[in-house]
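Continuing the series of single-chain predictions for the mutant panel. This is the parent chain; the variants come on the following pages.
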Amino acid sequence: MTRIVAGTAGGRRLKVPPKGTRPTSERVREALFSSLESMMDLDGANVLDLYAGSGALGFEALSRGAGHATFVESDRRAADVLKANAKDLGFGNTTIANRSAEAYVTAEGEKFDVVFADPPYAVTDEELTKVLHGLAGRLAEDAVLIVERGSKSAEPGWPDGVEPLRAKRYGDTAVYWGRLRADG
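Parent structure:
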């Protein structure tokens, strides 16, 4: 069972796509958001949840005060689950893009304050680096990027201007943090 950890929707359950996704555990989300909220105020933030799956990261951000979340998911069934979760939770401040992360980040569009990238473990480091570099023009000033990978994966190839901040391991999961430098 996947639930929202805290905020206005705290304790509410999320539907999970029948296969092909790996929702971020509650323990990891709780630690991740504790760190994120110590770095920045989520109130009104524009959030991007790449490789969204059930949307656990983006919905957690909305529950904690983010102003809008965009969910990018290439699998149609997972995108349908995202729509159902947004409706069930009462979050109208969402956009759900049923397309690949690479296609989404390279298109023109709004800028994001927080980006979550939790690709399937099968996504190669090279593919992820290409997506992260595609984000360069979509990052707001002081944007925070959070990348979740298997613990045996290498640190992500950050785009120019993004400074690596920290890495933390939680069992077989690693979370990497980067922030757009003011001069980036």
